[in-house]
Design brief:
Length: about 425
């Protein structure tokens, strides 16, 4: 296994182009199971997770190849309906093949996804939604086995104790597009990645309204055809790069970013005193003055994204004042606290809150990545820290950030890879 080593203290300067959104491309690749026609997906980031989803599509009878950001998908042989444990256990997002397999084949056998360090990650809402469409569900030796004579549209309330669910909304939407009649998903997720999936489904011939709002209406159709689609920019990678500019007191032009998808983050950063110059598809972030500590609470979109919580904690750990960071989506998503404290941060966890007392400077140290966004948080901390930081288990980082070292190096960062 490799580790990422960063010599901190360099002000990042220059331009960076954001890749396609991981959390849009995964369900969109799964959605190609809804047709036997060829599909072309553009703007696909070359990530561990996208390659896992491509392997799952191949295991289900598709031919799928990622070449220079483009995935061409066609049907090689009769689509299988079993997504096996080996692949699903490496990436829980693979669970979003359940909806399209059920929608197209009226049967699906998908391994239950494991939990992960950020939480138990239940799938009760996914199962509630597809049951409401008429599927019989059995749980057998770690698999969900779903079958339906016919899928019938229904009115489904999909809100859980933590609010809406992104992938449950995706799964139900993908099962409903070929169901008989109308489906209304109430308390649907509004994330831009859900909207991007809906846009792709509409290009395939689906009838969907209300995507991006809590009420999505789907009129079932008989079949879907192939389509070509370009993935939206990754708002979480963009947010991470914005914080990289601020935490290193640098000056970065971020290209291929839709600031409309970053409202909550921009609001918090402007409240902290950051100056962000936005155009339609770029953002110029130049550190001008010392920021002030602000409070952050994660919420479903358009609230502050939980996937930016760890990265914001890095910035707040070197911002004067007290910042209270409250995690309302995954209350245990604080594995990065102990690692930041190893770098000299003053952070105290109190249940779903982390109390961050900003210090002058972090000090480089050997730290361990525990999940994708925690590894991004540690990379940001390493960029700002005095001395050398080595982040082990960086396969977590490779799951969601395309060519991250090259991108940081181009911005002047002293970053390299070493064998564990
Ligand atoms: C998506 O996961 C993202 N992953 C996550 O990003 C992101 O953190 C999450 O949405 C929240 O925004 C992908 O899109 C591939 P949820 P998802 O269902 O859909 C609870 C990253 O770093 N819940 O919206 O699995 C759940 O426990 C990853 O890129 C239920 O209770 O998340 C959580 O508390 C990490 N029952 C809340 O809902 C269910 O059936 C939101 O989870 C499903 C979820």
């Amino acid at each position: 296994m490799d580790k990422l080593v960063i010599e901190g203290g360099v002000k990042l300067k220059g331009e960076v182009t954001i890749s396609g959104a991981k959390n849009a491309v995964l369900p969109i690749l799964a959605a190609t199971l809804l047709t036997d026609d060829a599909c072309i997906i553009k703007g696909v980031p070359d990530l561990r997770d996208t390659n896992t989803m491509i392997r799952i599509l191949r295991s289900l009878g598709k031919s799928a190849d990622l070449e220079k950001g483009i995935v061409s998908i066609s049907t090689l042989k009769k689509t299988g309906y079993v997504a096996d444990y080996k692949l699903v256990s490496t990436m829980r997002a693979s669970f979003c093949v359940l909806g399209p397999l059920l929608g197209k084949l009226k049967k699906a056998k998908v391994s239950l996804p494991g939990g992960c360090v950020i939480g138990v990650r239940p799938v009760d809402l996914h199962l509630k939604g597809i049951k409401a469409l008429g599927a019989d569900i059995n749980i057998e030796s770690g698999y969900v086995i779903a079958k339906a004579q016919e899928l019938k549209g229904n009115h489904i309330y999909l809100g859980g104790v933590y609010g809406s669910s992104v992938l449950a909304t995706d799964n139900v939407m993908m099962a409903a597009v070929l169901a008989n009649g109308k489906t209304v998903i109430e308390s649907a997720a509004c994330e831009p990645e859900v909207v991007d999936l809906a846009e792709f489904l509409v290009k395939m011939g689906a009838k969907i309204k209300g995507q991006g709002t809590p009420i999505i209406e789907i009129e079932g159709v008989k079949r879907l055809h192939g389509a070509t689609h370009t993935i939206i920019p990754d708002r979480i990678e963009a947010g991470t790069m914005i914080l990289a500019a601020l935490i290193t007191r640098g000056d970065i032009l971020i290209k291929n970013v839709s600031y409309k998808h970053l409202g909550a983050l921009i609001d918090r950063l402007e409240e902290a005193g950051a100056g962000l110059v936005k155009t339609d598809n770029s953002m110029h972030v130049r550190y001008k003055n010392e920021l002030k500590a602000i409070n952050v609470t994660t919420l479903p979109y358009p609230g502050f994204p939980t996937d930016m919580q760890a990265q914001m904690m890095s910035l707040m750990s070197v911002t004067p004042g007290i910042s209270v960071i409250t995690e309302k989506i995954y209350p245990d998503r604080f594995m990065h606290v102990a690692e930041l404290n190893r770098m000299g941060a003053h952070i105290q966890r109190e249940g779903p809150h982390a109390i961050v007392e900003g210090i002058k400077e972090l000090s480089g140290a050997p730290v361990m990545a525990s999940d994708l966004r925690a590894s991004a948080c540690l990379a940001l901390a390493g960029l700002a820290a005095k001395g050398k930081t080595s982040i082990s288990r960086i396969y977590h980082l490779e799951r969601g950030y395309e060519n991250i070292e090259e991108k940081l190096e181009k911005l002047g960062a002293k970053v390299w890879r070493e064998k564990e």
